[in-house]
Structure formats: structure tokens, C-alpha cells
Amino acid sequence: MKHFVTAASLASALATCAPAAAEPVYATPAQAEQIVAKAVAAVRKDNAKTFAAITAKDPAWVQGDLYPVVYDMHGKVLAHGQNARMVGKDVLELRDADGKAFIRERMELAATKASFWQDYAFVDPITKSILPKRMYCERSEGMVICAGIYKRH
Question: What is the membrane topology listed in the Swiss-Prot or TrEMBL record (predicted)?
């Protein structure tokens, strides 16, 4: 009986001391800019390896709601950190929840700017709901490399 009481007491103590489920960590604008800079450097070094790692959701590239996406200058997806099925697809005419042709706009911005922020609405990978999103992009070697943050407030 003494062992049962001790085991029960230990189990109870562990249950009350166990950490609660971790709250999701949401990306910041600075983190989006950092992961894009990291992706630009990695793509210059070995684009095939980088594209594969991003698309495989390697933790070096995908952290919570932060992930890179790489396009050619015509809107074809070369790597996608949340949806491997998008790779190889021409998404130029893809529209957001508000009907905005956001990839077309992104390619138009990339044609005239080396780096930029863009706003649109997109599905949040954590909540699965449509949220306003800000995407940071840089043009590099005929590609557009982006990562974004969701506006949660």
C-alpha cells in the first residue's frame, strides 16, 4: 500500500508540474527578413539543395508560421515551405480571399524593386483561418524569395 501511495503521489506531482502545451510562436517582420536573407545566400550557393530542404519543411527553414517560398520571375513556384504540391506550378493568377491577384502583384513589384513588403490575405498554417499577411520578398538571380508574417491583432 505504501508503494501505491508513493506512486500515486509522484504521478500527481508530475501532472501538476508538467508544462502546459506550448503556445505557438509567431514570426516577426525581422525574422521574415532574416530567413529571406538566409535563403538568398543558400540559393546562391546551391539552389537545388536549398529548394529541396525548404520544400521538405526542414526545421532550418520552417519554424511555426514562418517559411520561405521561392518563385521564378514568371510566378512559377520553385520551393514552398508549407505546400510541396505547389512546386512546379504557375501560380501567377492565384487570388487571395479578397480576390487580389497577389502573385501577379508580387512579380510586378519584383520587376522594379530589389526588396519589398506586400500585403494580402492567406491561410495561416497554425490556425487554418484566413488572416491578413505581410510578405517580405527579395529579387535575386532571376528569382523572388519571400517569407511572411500573419497579422494577428
Answer: Multi-pass membrane protein
| pLDDT score for 153 | 65
Q: Containing H/E element for 146?
A: strand 143-150
Residue 23: pLDDT band by 50, 70, 90 thresholds?
low
Rounded to two decimals, the pTM is 0.82
CATH number of the domain bearing residue 118:
3.30.450.20
Q: Which amino acid, one-letter code, is at 96?
A: D
The DSSP string of 32-86 is: HHHHHHHHHHHHHHHHHHHHHHHHTT-TTT-BTTB-EEEEETTSBEEEESS-GGG
HSE of 70, CA atoms in CB hemisphere, 13 A: 26
Q: Which three cell numbers stand for residue 102?
A: 497577389
Strands 68-72 and 115-123: unpaired
Residue 143 bridge partners (DSSP): 72, 140
Residue 44 Cα to chain centre, angstroms = 20
More confident residue, 101 or 3: 101
pLDDT (tens digit per residue) in 51-65 = 999 999 999 999 988
Q: What is the pLDDT of residue 25?
A: 74
User: What 3-state class would DSSP assign to 140?
Assistant: strand
The answer to whether residue 41 sits within a structural domain is: yes
